Description:
The model has no long low-confidence stretch (mean pLDDT 90). The chain has helices spanning 10-45, 54-69, 72-78, 80-87, 93-117, 121-129, 134-145, 147-168, 175-185, 190-218. The chain has a single domain (10-218), classed as MetI-like (MetI-like fold), CATH 1.10.3720.10. Helix 1 crosses helix 8 (147-168), helix 1 packs across helix 9 and helix 4 crosses helix 5 (93-117). It is built from 10 helices and no strands. Helices cover 79% and strands 0% of the residues. The protein is mainly alpha-helical.
Amino acid sequence: MDKVLPNVNWEKVWDSTVETLYMTGVSVAATLLLGIILGVLLFLTAEGNLWSNKVIYWITATFVNVFRSIPFIILIVLLIPFTKVLMGTIIGEKAALPALIIGAAPFYARLVEIGLREIDKGVIEAVQSMGAKTSTIIFKVLLPESMPALISGITVTAIALVGYTAMAGFVGAGGLGNLAFLDGFQRNRSDVTLVATIVILVIVFGIQFIGDLLTNRTDKR
């Protein structure tokens, strides 16, 4: 193996993989929570829904649209002052988390909103007519009924986040992107770049497999 891939330091590959998995895992968890909150808020405050409110909907929609439209590499740069205050540093995998979460949560929020819109309004109206509270409607109807769409959406978002972590590596966040760029591209070591790319693909395929499995299990159709 050393003769085929002479420049590959497997300890570095392992450390970089752990960093990528850490960044992806933490940001996916935070994105799932924030995205669902934003998505539910968008759905409920839209015209004709339970909390119909044009002002709150406009504010939430504007926030979501602005941050999901900014290219991720630019977002990292824009958030440097905020990241330094919040995390105390702008280098390393932890420093990448604010940009990863702020970049992905609005994107996922729109997927959540789309999933909620696909729910049969008759089901919601039936529960409302029984005097159910809004919290009951959210946790007993909206989220369970849209679960396949929510899982499918977070799968897509998680895969996007793996790509974001690779881009974050270009600005010192660590991970496989950093390994591919600094140890691979800049030092003209194509085998290092190749190995980093393969590991990223394995992570992506793993996420997709788990996401598809969970989506199929929760789909009642």
